[in-house]
Amino acid sequence: xxxxxxxxxxxxxxxxxxxxxxxxDTAIRGEKVNQEEPQYSFTSFEAFRKALTPQRFAxxxxxxxxxxxxIKELAAITHRDxxxxxxxxxxxxxxxxxxxEKHGKNKAPRLHYDGFRLEVAV
Length: 122
Known about the structure:
The chain is an alpha/beta fold. It has one domain (5-120): Arc Repressor Mutant, subunit A, CATH 1.10.10. The chain is built from 5 helices and 5 strands, in the order E-H-E-H-H-H-H-E-E-E. It has helices at 13-28, 45-51, 54-66, 71-78, 82-94, and strands at 5-10, 39-42, 99-103, 106-110, 115-120. Helix 1 (13-28) links the parallel strand 1 (5-10) and strand 2. The model has no long low-confidence stretch (mean pLDDT 88).
């Protein structure tokens, strides 16, 4: 089975806007725009660390290994408060690091990749 990775980048707002402008210029010229895999970007390493805390990283591992059938089950497995788990799950969803799948009456958090790559522009 092929190993799949999500890409997370750390680059300045200016670098991101320059890349966006280059893509727009390519499209305006009628040329084919390269379809890269979607990625989540941060403007600093500090912002990355604030978003992907050790607790959230641990949640990714639990979701991958234990495959909980609901947020409630995830809270029980991790012995964490439901409110805090829900907040962390929302952030991981917003970062596109997890997806929610319907399982009966519940929605189960899922990972559909094996890891992520961190790309840092200098």
